[in-house]
Amino acid sequence: MRLITGLSNPTIKYLRSLRDKKHRRREGRFLAEGLRLLTDARETGHLPDMLVMAEGRDPHPLLDTLIEAVEAANGDVIEVSEAALSKITGKDNPQAVCGVFAEFDTGLDRIDRSSAPLFLVAQAMRDPGNLGTMLRTADAVGAGGLILVDDCADPFSVEAVRASMGAVFTVPLAQARWDEFQGWLRSGEGQLVAASLREPHDYREAPYVAPCFVMVGNESRGLPEEYEVECDLRVTIPMLGRADSLNASIAGAVLAYEALAKLR
Amino acid sequence: MRLITGLSNPTIKYLRSLRDKKHRRREGRFLAEGLRLLTDARETGHLPDMLVMAEGRDPHPLLDTLIEAVEAANGDVIEVSEAALSKITGKDNPQAVCGVFAEFDTGLDRIDRSSAPLFLVAQAMRDPGNLGTMLRTADAVGAGGLILVDDCADPFSVEAVRASMGAVFTVPLAQARWDEFQGWLRSGEGQLVAASLREPHDYREAPYVAPCFVMVGNESRGLPEEYEVECDLRVTIPMLGRADSLNASIAGAVLAYEALAKLR
User: Fold this and answer.
1) Inter-chain contact A137–B166, Cβ cutoff 8 Å?
2) Searching chain B, which residue's CA lies closest to the CA of residue A202?
3) What are the protein's GO molecular function terms (chains A, B) (predicted)?
4) Dist CA B205 CA B207 (whole Å)
């Protein structure tokens, strides 16, 4: 373990730069925060290259386990001031530990359509909180993966990793353009389902079939019409109020839990 | 209409101060952004005291309607620079218009338990985005209201109003301490339902009864045990992955849509 003092140290600058997508891409690294999340990562075989904790933190046996594991794997274990940790994580009240992880491969070959009855698909989802929440929901419904289609928020952003509550480490994740996803999907079995107002089935009565790919679109614009017509099943969720749409991650969860109940 | 130039003008400072809860409370005013949201507000009988728009905005007939309505009600219509509007809303890319509204009364007498089969309850929900999303979901399921119990995020914060997508104007909203809510709830009909691991029913098979109050707890801690035991019905949502919880607003939506399907 080594101690780094001062806010302008190159390591602190490197860590802080990982809050920025451009730097994450260049380094192939991302940040995850919090003892619980880092413990989940460790238990699923993901150790950080670098483990960073605040001086004056409370001792914790799980943190000791984590330190031992990172040191045994020749990782870097670093103590910094609370101010430096705040600067790294961008939070006023930083969780007392964060780690730097190698980004995963997110090719479509990460997804095994025989591994689960249900998969989630997000198209042009721009909010990292929504994207992380989709990952968390994907874990909860036992989905075989989350596929990010077109220009989505970065799943390795601090906000997405935080909202995923560790699911970024446990849920297979793929990124693809629509054409690429379509080619992959149609090369095997798979029912593509989306919420729609176009000849829709009531989502409670619809004929879901495994492997079922539940897709939601962009937060403002929804799915493009030409994507919607490519779906095998279009369903409608009741909207009894003034608004005509749900939050995208809410719509995804309501559909995913309905499909799960029918497919289990 | 009047034009305000410069970032240090007192009106700009006043508007910016409304991003802060303390100032909102003192002034009894809150900010809402975006032409669509302000149009929804107008159509449901809520006009801003003050309407603020960027110079150099694109013209829009709905904006003209809004300006006429605010001026007819002796409201203040103001043009500012794009930089000033960014400063007010805290967004880099501000929507071209925002309004200042009087905060509503949020007493429990705002809730009419005979008005709908379903109501949502959030306990100690700290994230304004989750809270706004709960409002949006409450609108979608036709809930008779959202009741905020104990120390929740401010429903009049810019983030909550934004996430509500206008539902802050359409869904009856109440704020109460737990004891006060309990007293009110037990003075009439009402089934209190929460997700729980304590003698739970499967949420798909549970006996929901109108008026049904679906409650979710704090994002990190869930519901206090002593609140859970006061519930009339405890249900379980399948969790097939590593995690043992969903995002609070997701859990609320999954339960609310299930209860709605059974109670419609």
Assistant:
1) no
2) B261
3) RNA binding; RNA methyltransferase activity
4) 7
Judged by CB atoms closer than 8 Å, whether chains meet at A142 and B242 is answered as: no
Window from A35-39, A189-193, B94-98 with minimum mean pLDDT: B94-98
Examine the pLDDT at A93 and tell me if it is beyond 70: no
- CB-based contact B166:B30 (threshold 8 Å): no
Interhelix angle A248-263/B248-263, rounded to 10 degrees, is 60
In chain A, positions 45-84, which contact chain B (CB-CB < 8 Å)? none
The answer, yes or no, to whether the previous bond of B10 is cis (omega within 30 of 0) is: no
ipTM: 0.94
* pLDDT confidence band for B93 (50 / 70 / 90): low
Contact A209, A235 (CB under 8 A): no
pLDDT reported for residue B95: 67
Whether residue A242 and residue B163 make contact (CB cut-off 8 A), yes or no, is no
pLDDT exceeds 90 at position B6 = no
The four Cα atoms A250, A252, A258, A262 give a dihedral, to 10 degrees, of: -160
In the β-sheet with B146-149, what is the strand arrangement from edge to edge?
Answer: B173-176, B146-149, B118-123, B212-216, B191-195, B233-236, B201-202
A136 touches chain B (CB under 8 A): yes
Distance CA B151, CA B143 (A): 22
CA distance A206 to A213: 14
Domains defined along chain B, listed by start: 2-102 (3.30.1330.30), 108-263 (3.40.1280.10)
Per the CB < 8 Å rule, is A261 touching B138?
no
Quote the minimal CA–CA distance from B181 to chain A in Å: 25
How many CB contacts within 8 angstroms connect chain A with chain B? 106
Of B149, B134, B143, give the one whose Cα is nearest residue B210: B143
Instruction: With beta carbons under 8 A apart, name residues in chain A contacting B142.
Output: 238, 240-241
Q: Note whether B143 and A238 are within 8 A (CB).
A: no
pLDDT at B5: 82
